[in-house]
């Protein structure tokens, strides 16, 4: 594993995307614990795409226009749903006490769906991982698994940093309802923008 892979992974993980938005929203609305759980869910949502890349299923997804479109528009619909729920006062970005009854399982499931319903991730990893496998590698499959696990670890760490930072300014947000209103609008707009970006994505 090269330093180039670690740097590239860090840049990719830190780039604004659905996982970052979901983790930030969790930290702001429900605190650091929820942010860590959401970060875990977003990271687990990468697993199917990693497996697709490792097993070659991404190539099938790339070749099948129908399969790609079905998954893509399911992802768009879910992102628009997230935008709508974020705008609602009692929706995704509601400010809850840290012992909110929403279970860890619900937070993780919602976070996983955000990443699972993005077919471009499979194709991205299908193109990304092999770049760091040398022709002399005696076990390329094993190397891809190791690289995948490292990428997931980097992603999780970056998301946790985002989420914990958001949680650290949470008290300032809760004491200013007008700021919270604008943040709801901002996060909703971010989800809509991500949905539009995904809708325009081609194979």
From TrEMBL:
Keyword Transmembrane belongs to the record: yes
Domain of life: Bacteria
InterPro entries with a match to the protein in the record: LeuE-type (IPR001123)
Localization of this protein: Cell membrane
Sequence intervals crossing the membrane: 6-28, 35-60, 66-87, 107-129, 141-167
One Pfam family cited in the UniProt record for this chain: LysE
Record flagged with keyword Disulfide bond: no
Membrane topology: Multi-pass membrane protein
Keyword list, A-Z: Cell membrane, Membrane, Transmembrane, Transmembrane helix
Family assignment from sequence similarity: Belongs to the Rht family.
Protein's recorded name: LysE family transporter
Organism (species): Microvirga arsenatis
Taxonomic lineage: Bacteria, Pseudomonadati, Pseudomonadota, Alphaproteobacteria, Hyphomicrobiales
